[in-house]
Amino acid sequence: MENQEIQITYTTTEKPKPNAESLEFGKIFTDHMFIMDYSLEDGWHSPRILPYQPITLDPAAIVFHYGQTVFEGLKAYKTKDGHVRLFRPNKNMERLNRSNRRLCIPEIDEEFALQAIRELVRLEKDWIPTAPGTSLYIRPFIISTEPYLGVAPSKRYQFIIILSPVGAYYKEGINPVKIAVEQTFVRAVNGGTGEAKTAGNYASSLKAQELVAEKGYAQVLWLDGVEKKYIEEVGSMNMFFKVDGEVITPSLNGSILEGVTRNSVITLLQHWGIPVIEKKISIDEIYQAYKDGLLEEAFGTGTAAVISPVGELSWNGEKLAINGGKIGEVSQRLYDTLTGIQYGTKEDTFNWIIEVS
Amino acid sequence: MENQEIQITYTTTEKPKPNAESLEFGKIFTDHMFIMDYSLEDGWHSPRILPYQPITLDPAAIVFHYGQTVFEGLKAYKTKDGHVRLFRPNKNMERLNRSNRRLCIPEIDEEFALQAIRELVRLEKDWIPTAPGTSLYIRPFIISTEPYLGVAPSKRYQFIIILSPVGAYYKEGINPVKIAVEQTFVRAVNGGTGEAKTAGNYASSLKAQELVAEKGYAQVLWLDGVEKKYIEEVGSMNMFFKVDGEVITPSLNGSILEGVTRNSVITLLQHWGIPVIEKKISIDEIYQAYKDGLLEEAFGTGTAAVISPVGELSWNGEKLAINGGKIGEVSQRLYDTLTGIQYGTKEDTFNWIIEVS
């Protein structure tokens, strides 16, 4: 696989680059995309970069009916001096293969997939916005393409990478969000697909999200599917709390996603000597900490927001105001450090950065 | 919606009809398909029948990433005198809308969707095989087509119907299958999407299915996601047991699919005066019934097999042989009656049949 050459077909009609000020998330795509095919006979083959174009599939393709698909999300950042950098992309490739195993999708060569990302990003480097907080979002994904209505793993797949320039997550400083603890719907359960990055997890989350949005909440905080008692994730981010000087986060229990930002946050906190513990956390424990005046900070972690502080938690009809609705000290330090490493203004102590160009 | 006319574009190159003897499930498709579009501005619009052809979508289409999709499955049967019949298709359309509501997909007009099915099947009536047990499988499905990587309901959809001639499920008489009780993986949990017919439920089932197949089992029997104790479904069928003269089936608890065949079986049993009870059924209860010599029959129900008798159940390392591995009396009677109604050799007592032509 490593020796396969990526064929490139250049676009003949370059699209206009968007205005960095008005950039949203995931709506505009660059001039090119990467595709690679899988068949039982040839394995993963024919890696190529093509002009960004529609995918053409048989209406019976398995992805439309049985959702056998996985994806990843990461970003390319441009430094002030024009260097293009990726943040721990090897972690995303490892997770893509973990998702593949859960979904019965043939594994990819992680080194080669990373090479494909770098080659595509290099080609599209002029699409990477440079305004503060902006970046190029990278979406690798695999879809099952065999036309067959039987419920069985597909015999054919496509691995595709598309790129989208995205605006700053926080356009006017970091605003803590209001989160509602979800007590009816469940995102995932042990034995399900919760720790895989696959379509069904997101489809099932839409309804809960829609209902809390009507009440003015930005996201839901998911509880476990068994007892509806233990904290899992918030929206599509991992969740952290700072309680009485100690940072706690739900342990990887099989139903939550192993976030790259989550892992980086834990590493940073350990490095700083701030106690950080991965454990089973009940919503009651958080409520009690709040009542005792010990709930100091709460924040989500993910590729899009990096750190998303939670200013209010709604649970059982009560509204828990956290840190006066303002971002906490540790949250701010984590945000500054992670984005500093990503954009090259802070030292990359842990060798997290991979240069593209 | 009812007054919208379905535009028809006929194919200019008819495909050869397959040999009825060699027909498999869901691999061959007819000459035409139905499509209808949805947008926020126009609602569901532009219903049309086109030559069967690939779907062209932006690679960022939501269905590829977040699996916002629902589907249905039903069959058209041809009687000896050439009539074409559908079995309770209104139930499928009702369920499609229930699935739509769970997945935040705009509801369709059920009457119009049924009209579309009838018009498409009528056009393709020569594709309906006539050998015993064969039929034309109908797959209506909805996919989210908006190109957007944010996790939110799509603003655009396509409702598509494709048709596939399928062979007899039982080519050499009804062979009871071996089923393994699944003790690791979970199909669905209360608060999830288990009662919706949506892609993610099927994607998550592939791994368990793959592992039991290696041990010679045809399907898995799913237990509930909370206690891993209560019976949910078998593979993609509903499950029934006959214990000491009484038929029992798991009640609709929010995480199992409300099968049309399941409902029909309950109706028939009640009509025949055979006790049938919907209730929470633990695997221990079934095991105890087996030990006491009271487990008389076990069978799955679904559109593909109609009735699928279970001859062996594997649980906790034990193999429970049911009715000597042969089909039971009630299972056989249900199969004969349901297929008799479908193919027009038995009276349609409950007005379940809708004529196409």
UniProtKB/TrEMBL annotation, chains A, B:
Q: What is its EC number?
A: 2.6.1.42
Q: Which SUPFAM superfamilies match?
A: D-aminoacid aminotransferase-like PLP-dependent enzymes
What's the superkingdom here?
Bacteria
Coiled coil segments of this chain: none
Q: In which pathway does it act?
A: Amino-acid biosynthesis; L-valine biosynthesis; L-valine from pyruvate: step 4/4; Amino-acid biosynthesis; L-isoleucine biosynthesis; L-isoleucine from 2-oxobutanoate: step 4/4; Amino-acid biosynthesis; L-leucine biosynthesis; L-leucine from 3-methyl-2-oxobutanoate: step 4/4
Q: Which family does it belong to?
A: Belongs to the class-IV pyridoxal-phosphate-dependent aminotransferase family.
- Quote the protein name from its UniProt record: Branched-chain-amino-acid aminotransferase
Please tell me the species this chain comes from.
Answer: Radiobacillus deserti
Lineage runs: Bacteria, Bacillati, Bacillota, Bacilli, Bacillales
